[in-house]
Specification:
Elements lengths: L1 H34 L4 E17 L2 E16 L18 H30 L1 E2 L7 E5 L4 H4 L7 E5 L4 E8 L4 H5 L5 E6 L2 E2 L3 H10 L7 E5 L5 H4 E4 L16 H12 L1 E5 L2 H9 L6 E7 L2 E7 L2 E6 L2 E2 L5 E2 L2 E6 L2 E4 L2 E2 L3 H28 L9 H12 L3 H19 L7 H14 L5 H33 L3
Antiparallel strand pairs: 1-2, 3-19, 4-18, 5-12, 6-11, 7-8, 7-9, 9-10, 12-13, 14-17, 15-16
Helix pairs in contact: 1-2, 1-10, 1-11, 2-9, 2-11, 2-12, 5-7, 9-11
Length: about 475
């Protein structure tokens, strides 16, 4: 029964996310066309055979059997009635451009609305929160059998109570000579992820006389190069007294002593990475429960997942790797916000999501990020996985997908809205309509390109699901 309910919940999440994103997009075109007094033949919720139809004035409103999005039929855009007074092509060029861009604008509006909903009803991370709280424990998974409970605050992993984010560097220390500064987080040594201070020393020691690259993340950086970069590794002689294996507390102490750096307390990213990098390994997690410290033993199950890494050339990529999973979700302490504060945060978060998509596309083009796009099937798989975390996570994911669609749709490729916008701007510059046959040929060529791309992406998605059982 639990598996059935989980499956239904996943399907519902897929319907909500894709349905809202596509419906809001088409609603943007519809509302803009109505505002510009263009003829709208039909506005449909969903696709497939009509379950309900009703004509109001000149528009048929319908509900279709497949509730994944919708469509709008505007006079003139399907090749008929192009010269009618209320046709898309009979209106001024700026009105046509407004109708096309309105779909993208509504995707951004949707992102703002769902983020606002999450912030107002679920809350935001408390500014002063350092807790790593277990929000959910999945039945039958290692965390449950290991005695972990919802509300536990993870304060230590493997005896370590620190992460690899640096809060201070001693003057003249080894860390300073390496180029490390306060605010830097060491996240990868060579091709291995690190999560606690002892990991840094262990990986550097294991490299021997071939010092690996030390990859650092700086959350304050504005560009990819400023956020992710490498620093000089220490000479092997500086690590002569480091044992091959370190316990958590000993690793914290030696890292501070040898590197001359002080590290921040354990955080959510550290707990996640520590567990992920130790599949099938018996671990000890320290939690704070009702004011008491409890040590729990747990063995993560081995599963495939995409892991964010940096290759030797500095390119970001996400290969499939075996990782550890214990069946929990983590989060900080939350606090509620008011309606207007939530709206402000929703706008800020939506802007950030759009900016991140644009920066990522730019980074792919210049080769800073490996092109590993996910197709519709992969997005549905990710949505189904997100559904297990709860509806706040689903709505947050919906906001990110809507922001993605806003950016992708504005690419200057027919039949995307960006391609249509370019054609309208060219016509405005030429002061005449482009030949209808030429315009149709361009659209068909763009559509063929998109269909081939979608088929290729779908093939990759299916291959990943079969081979790795994940996207």
């Amino acid at each position: 029964m639990e598996m059935l309910l989980s499956g239904v919940n996943s399907l519902l999440a897929i319907g909500v996310v894709l349905g809202l994103c596509l419906f809001f997009h088409e609603a943007g075109h519809f509302l803009a066309a109505k505002a510009c007094r263009m003829g709208v033949y039909e506005f449909a919720l969903g696709f497939g055979p009509a379950l309900y139809k009703r004509k109001m004035r000149d528009t048929v409103y319908s509900i279709r059997s497949l509730p994944l999005g919708g469509f709008v039929r505007i006079a003139g855009m399907d090749g008929e009635d192009r010269d009618a007074p209320n046709s898309f092509y009979s209106r001024p060029w700026w009105q046509g451009l407004f109708v096309i861009v309105a779909g993208v604008l509504m995707n951004i509006v949707l992102a703002v609305l769902v983020y606002w909903t999450v912030y107002v009803f679920s809350g935001i991370p408390a500014p002063d929160s350092t807790e790593v709280i277990i929000r959910k424990v999945f039945a039958g998974d290692p965390a449950e059998t290991g005695g972990m409970k919802v509300g536990d605050n993870i304060i230590g992993v493997g005896g370590s109570y620190r992460c690899t984010e640096i809060v201070a560097v001693d003057e003249g220390s080894l860390a300073e000579k390496m180029g490390l500064k306060a605010g830097h987080r060491v996240f990868q040594i060579g091709d291995e992820q690190v999560s606690i201070p002892g990991d840094i020393l262990e990986q550097l020691k294991a490299a021997g006389d071939k010092p690996p690259k030390v990859w650092v993340m700086n959350g304050e950086g504005e560009s990819i190069e400023e956020r992710v970069f490498s620093v000089d590794p220490p000479p092997p002689s500086a690590l002569a007294d480091v044992p091959a294996e370190l316990s958590g507390e000993e690793g914290d102490r030696l890292a501070k002593q040898i590197l001359g750096a002080r590290f921040a307390p354990l955080d959510q990213e550290t707990a996640h990475t520590y567990i992920s990098t130790r599949p099938d390994e018996r671990l000890t997690l320290t939690v704070l429960r009702d004011g008491e410290t409890v040590h729990l033993a747990v063995t993560p199950e081995s599963k495939y997942a995409r892991v964010g890494m940096v290759d030797d050339g500095g390119k970001l990529h996400s290969p499939h790797r075996l990782v550890g999973r214990i069946g929990i979700t983590l989060g900080p302490r939350l606090e509620r916000v008011g309606v207007f504060e939530g709206l402000k945060l929703g706008v800020v978060q939506s802007y950030g999501a759009v900016a991140m998509v644009i920066l990522s596309l730019k980074a792919m083009i210049v080769g800073q990020i490996a092109a590993e796009p996910t197709g519709p099937i992969g997005i549905m798989a990710m949505t189904a996985e997100t559904a297990k975390l709860g509806w706040a996570a689903v709505l947050t994911w919906c906001g990110f997908i809507s922001a993605n669609l806003a950016v992708i749709n504005m690419l200057p490729i027919p039949p995307f809205d960006g391609g249509q916008s370019v054609l309208i701007i060219i016509e405005a510059a030429l002061r005449r309509r482009i030949n209808e046959a030429l315009e149709m040929a361009v659209r068909l060529a763009g559509l063929a390109l998109i269909l081939v791309l979608f088929a290729w992406l779908a093939y990759g998605d299916i291959l990943n699901l079969v081979k790795f059982r994940t996207y």
